Amino acid sequence: MTETLLKLTDVRKHFPAGRGASVKAVNGVSLEIRRGETLGLVGESGCGKTTLGRTIVKLYRPDGGRIEYGGQDVWSFDRKQNLDYRKKVQIIYQDPYASLDPLSVVSTSIAEGLNIHKMYRSSKERHERVLELLRLVGLNPEHANRFPHEFSGGQRQRIGIARALALEPELIVCDEPISALDVSIQAQIVNLMMQLQQDMGLSYIFITHDLSMVKQISDRIAVMYLGSIVELAPSDMLYEHHCHPYTQALLSAIPIPDPETERTRKRILLQGDAPNPTALGDSCDFAGRCPCATDKCRSQRPALTEIEPGHWAACHYSQAL
């Protein structure tokens, strides 16, 4: 069995919303990320995908649960262990322009981590490493002395990837890295990331709302709704035999590049409103929008349960779907 690289157990992250209330952005997530795999994380905007990713890279401190790296809670690390963790777990941000310092040339942005962690013996060696990284992501050495505004969106995202690779990480959290790019550029970036994974043995958490693209890059896919994982399965299994009504609705929204099929296929349109994220109770969070909901769903929260090997779903009636 593939080695577990990172393990999340009942991770929670809540944000205060005034008058004693809190938004449960991440509400009891348990996951394992395996070495060398890509875990796709999908769901509607606001479901907590980015918050979970930022909690994993320690930009947010969780309000509960445990994140383990190498079998040890990352929030119990001493200074040396923490520095090593920040080298091994990196992030690629959604907006490639906002994530780069507009007043610094590209080489400075990429070399920042190398300087902080005192990697390589001299500034010359660090600069050579920067040029190597630029070549690795498909850019030219002369790009090193240009500013972010001089690049296209796709080129800026390549710079973001180079910066994430600089510290030789094992896991990269990819926070919607293609959503701000043109469709043709999206394919180039995804192909680049897949090639880098193969060459360097990387693990990815690929956060996206693009369900057609996530199937191409992911080994497993986790579907997130209002801070919780509602379904988790290998990529092909999820698309062929999904077992949660929310997953069904998401997959039915994927456009099909065939006019005849697209006109005749049945879309699942969710009715009702999502519950208030500050007032999630003991019921199923999806019950108010689910066409299959019963009194049991409105009174009892379903647990994430393995319904077949490797396939998990949080639905009382997942076997019937």
From TrEMBL:
Protein name per UniProt: ABC transporter ATP-binding protein
Heme recorded as keyword: no
ABC transporter domain span: 6-251
Top-rank taxon: Bacteria
Keyword field: ATP-binding, Nucleotide-binding, Transport
Protein family per UniProt: Belongs to the ABC transporter superfamily.
Organism: Candidatus Ventrousia excrementavium
GO molecular function: ATP binding; ATP hydrolysis activity
Gene Ontology BP term (one): peptide transport
